[in-house]
From TrEMBL, chains A, B:
Pfam families cross-referenced by the UniProt entry: S-Me-THD_C (PF20906), S-Me-THD_N (PF06032)
SUPFAM superfamilies linked: CV3147-like
Annotated S-Me-THD N-terminal domain residues: 12-167
Protein name: Hydantoinase
Highest taxon of source: Bacteria
Length: 363, 363
């Protein structure tokens, strides 16, 4: 299970899908369609070579790419399939560079698959790592941006053939703002490729080995299903996580605000947690978990909602009143917990002025 | 007054301001700030050379540019001053071309001044003509687009240093949609320069001599003021127009919808028009004039609202209950009345399925 991944094969795709959805912490979009497209590419004879992060050449030209848009739209509006490839080509044209490898901006959710799909289409390898180790709603919330890489220029492509290059912005927050506006005009789904990075920077800034991590996590869940073992406990063991609560969803408020799914769910514990009240706030992803009014886990640590029977992840748009869930906390990678990172992905960055991040294992 | 304009001098600027505002038919933004900036450039020793349309070389590389945004925002958010210049530079970089001349996308309102300002800054001439002969709210509503020029790529620049290149879109309506979305993110005001045109196309497609027209129209109004002559009649004589009504605004409904000022005003005639009820519909610009429920003048013909005393134009954002106005109709240029043009700028294009364009002089 801990072998080094050199290539993503058909057998890996189902596992990566599950692992990536768990790491998506409710958001990031559904990796299902991307998985099917990757499978098609493999059937055509294309392949998805993987470069382990520590084998990346220092001067390699690495492009981070992924889909941008509202996950809830991605469910109904299926991509044409070459959005990210066209964004990559537009970026190459803009900068006149030859790209050596691709990397995912976020392993959580649909963007686990996008760079693998583009890699198969373009004949390029993907790097085993990503820019978040999870999913987050905005572009500047990735390690590239946090650790000093400017994401401009960024190229965007939609399914109708439109191509937009955001050539300059004062900072990556402005890039995010303009890109978000463009993607709304494009119909809330587009591919985006941003300013290439050097291999040595990627080795320093990427959350390492997250394709392998997603694959192994998904494999463990599938294996637990096959063995009739407890899949929730399997996720916890695999990721060094913690069971926060088994609970029923007794209230659910969720609405679209500025292109994001925003709201919270109220939980009533069962089993060992009978008598506990829980609450999870969300903005595409799950942001804060409270037990009886007290914050226990918050971003950037991962709050994962699993079906309590199957251990399969439930995304924000699939939450329903009455669902029986297991809430699990997983520790974020240390690159997402540094002071620089917390300024961008900590609770304050999401408007929680009264919540201070505390690593979940010390809470 | 009909001399050929070879250069815009300080003395011309006040006149162009008035003429352009009249041709703006209520929209197009206020040319005042642009005039002051042009004046500053002239004071610095820069100049604004003008090329008469018929003297343009067939192979000249001509770029159409202007401000894009909500006129109502332009009133409070003053441009930094080099937005269009930076958009031009970004377009040159995108296409690796040397530009020979600039032309206004619309002579009506603020975009009369923008190309002159950029010309002074860049050391380029402006062509005496424009793409509308008036103002219209959307980019595809210009003769370039109507007569077969694709406006992509288009480069946009804002006052904060952001630069966006819209490289490809399926058509100019999609370009408008994406550009509109970008300008909202940019704070509702930006400069935009689009795909260069050849001189021979511009000679065929531009509404001719409209800088001269605006200057002469404004001069005539100023001259009428000086002579204590009737300025409203002066506008009518100068532009071969028609007085539609002298009236008081007795009702005014105006709201922002999708970045546009939308609404209508109700008029009660006075003087020779006592007993008449009028109504003008607007979307940034005045679109349709009805007398006693019957359409008399509609787009693309120009509906101009003048202060009945001064003959100075009143833009949509300056309309007030109780104002005494003169409503004047001016015939659109024939390039805006062709079947191709009417599909894009006729009443149907603005959602009036029950209104058919009829040239105002035959109505």
């Amino acid at each position: 299970m801990t072998d080094v991944l050199r290539e993503v094969t058909d057998a890996d795709l189902d596992a990566i899908e599950i692992g990536a959805a768990i790491l998506g912490t409710g958001g990031g979009g559904n990796p299902y369609i991307g998985k099917l497209r990757c499978r098609e590419e493999l059937k055509k004879g294309n392949c998805i070579p993987v470069i382990p992060l520590d084998e990346l050449a220092d001067d390699a030209v690495v492009v981070s790419l992924g889909g941008i848009g509202a996950p809830v739209v991605g469910v109904e509006k299926i991509e044409e399939g070459e959005e990210c490839l066209r964004a990559l080509r537009a970026l190459e044209q803009e900068l006149d560079v030859k790209v050596d490898a691709l990397i995912s901006v976020e392993i959580g959710g649909a963007n686990s698959m996008e760079p693998m799909l583009t890699a198969a289409q373009a004949g390029l390898p993907v790097v085993d790592g990503d820019g978040m180790g999870r999913a987050f709603p905005e572009m500047q919330m990735c390690t590239w941006s946090i650790y000093g890489h400017r994401e401009c220029p960024a190229a965007m492509a939609d399914e109708k053939g439109s191509i937009v290059v955001i050539r300059e912005t004062p900072d990556d927050v402005w890039l995010e703002r303009i890109a978000r506006s463009v993607v709304v005009a494009m119909g809330a789904a587009a591919g985006l490729a941003s300013q290439p990075m050097r291999g040595d920077f990627v080795k320093r800034a990427a959350v390492p080995n997250t394709i392998t991590q997603a694959r192994n996590l998904g494999r463990a869940v599938l294996d637990a299903h096959a063995r009739h073992a407890d899949p929730v406990q399997t996720v916890i063991n695999q990721e060094n996580g913690q069971l926060l609560m088994t609970a029923k969803i007794v209230d659910l408020e969720r609405h679209l605000k500025g292109g994001f799914a925003v709201g919270h769910l109220t939980l009533e514990g069962f089993g060992a947690y009978r008598g506990d009240r829980g609450r999870i706030d969300l903005q595409n992803e799950f942001l804060v978990f409270r037990r009886n009014g007290v914050v226990e886990v918050c971003v950037p640590d991962l709050i994962v909602v699993l079906d309590s029977d199957t251990g399969l992840p439930i995304t924000t748009e699939m939450l329903r009143y009455g669902q029986r869930i297991a809430v699990v906390g997983l520790p974020a990678h240390k690159l997402m917990r540094s002071p620089e990172a917390l300024r961008v992905v900590g609770p304050e960055a999401f408007g929680y002025d009264d919540v201070t991040f505390c690593p979940m294992e010390t809470g």
